[in-house]
């Protein structure tokens, strides 16, 4: 899946010469946390809701003579110019890694010429992850611990085929034990016991769902 498949294309922006007052208004009106700063269609910076609030006069202290001057200051004075971006043709997982590594909440999506095409937020990534994993449909979670060997995933997947159980998503991640990995299947059945019994009969350890005696 590519960034262009899930990015928001209707992006709220400001110009470098727009005032902090206008940026604050847009933050409140559209309930957004990041506003790309665009000039002639090209990305030149970004401001966050925190940047805007930090720049605004305090609502606690008494009004000052220069409050209006501050609110009318151009956003170019507070925007960050070293913007981390994504390309429309980047893979979603690469964009997610950029958000994670840089601890940021959004990525403006730009072309090779820095033309703003959209924006991708951590909420978009989370929504997509939920959709890809199929957890928004009635389904069950099956987790199996297996040896970290080539072909194991195919072998276990074949058990689902033999049990006529539809799999909506599969995740693979390192197991808790040396030389092991965990396979997580999301399956379209509310009661997966008939599948987990077959998995155990094949000699694999089912981590989830646990048996009643393991929960007591």
UniProtKB/TrEMBL annotation:
Q: Report the PANTHER family cross-referenced here.
A: CBS DOMAIN-CONTAINING PROTEIN, CBS DOMAIN-CONTAINING PROTEIN CBSX3, MITOCHONDRIAL
Classification of source organism: Bacteria, Bacillati, Bacillota, Bacilli, Bacillales
Q: What Pfam families would the database entry show?
A: ACT (PF01842), CBS (PF00571)
Q: Which keywords does this Swiss-Prot/TrEMBL entry list? A: CBS domain, Oxidoreductase
Would the keyword Oxidoreductase be found if you checked this record's keyword annotation?
yes
Q: Which domain of life is it from?
A: Bacteria
Instruction: Identify a single GO molecular function assigned to this protein.
Output: IMP dehydrogenase activity
| Matching Gene3D superfamilies | 3.30.70.260, CBS-domain
Name the top EC class.
oxidoreductase
Name under which the protein is recorded: Inosine-5'-monophosphate dehydrogenase
Is the keyword Oxidoreductase in the record? yes
Under which EC number(s) is this enzyme classified? Answer: 1.1.1.205
Please give the InterPro entries that the UniProt record associates with this protein. Answer: ACT-like_dom_sf (IPR045865), ACT_dom (IPR002912), CBS_dom (IPR000644), CBS_dom_sf (IPR046342), Diverse_CBS-Domain (IPR051257)
